Amino acid sequence: MAGTVPGAQAxxxxxxxxxxxxxxxxxxxxxxxxxxxxxxxxPTAHRLLTALQAEGLxxxxxxxxxxxxxxxxxxxxxxxxxxxxxxxxxxxxxKSLATRTEESAxxxxxxxxxxxxxxxxxxxxxxxxxxxxxxxxxxxxxASAGLAILSFLPDDEIDAYLERQTKLSxxxxxxHSVAAIRTRIQETRDRGYAVNPGxxxxxxxxxxxxxxxxxxxxxxxxxxxxxxxxxxxxxxxRLGRDLLSHAHQLTAALAASGR
Length: 259
Hints:
Elements: H1 8-23, H2 31-38, H3 42-54, E1 58-60, E2 67-69, H4 71-84, H5 86-101, E3 104-111, E4 114-121, E5 137-139, H6 144-151, H7 155-164, H8 168-172, H9 178-191, E6 194-197, E7 204-212, E8 218-227, H10 236-257
Antiparallel strand pairs: 1-2, 3-4, 3-8, 4-5, 6-7, 7-8
Helix pairs in contact: 1-2, 1-3, 2-3, 5-10, 6-9
């Protein structure tokens, strides 16, 4: 697309910069970080950041030099929410999942080759994992939410995705080789939910279950995360059942709402 539509490459680069800024949330992000994650040169990244700042889409903290989401993004998001406000529908279900399991519970959505966390609710257990929070993105197949969604896509889409993703093991380690992901996809299909046994951060476990749209396509995921000793063999099956139950409940609620 970038080679056939005039200006598409510039738009794609600006979109990549915006995604990186929003993924950092309220903590902010440096120009160097954005350049590294978008595979742009630092001068190119800075030019795009400056242009986006001029349009109000991002802000720059004068004290720290960090880039943050801007007011125009808020206004655009408020308007778009009327079409995509799944978190409002899912909030009570995610909260119930956190209460039931006592772990941190999340709602994520698929956007292209990634999942984006939309909602987080913490459970009552005082030790928590902070791998995931609102706005954080992971490639499909890395975090438990993305693995759950990827596992229930059609086989040809899985094959095409894995052909595109040539650097997952480079960025996330050997457990994210194509062969390893394919093994976890089959395990997820057999089990019904995905398990991430500390593959992103050592000792931080996650479970994910796909949530389907009215056409039966996995578009969202519920997940829970916590410290590893809370996900032992004596507790894991019950956590999985609770997760699947809440995912089915949200799937039904989305279908009833026409989404």
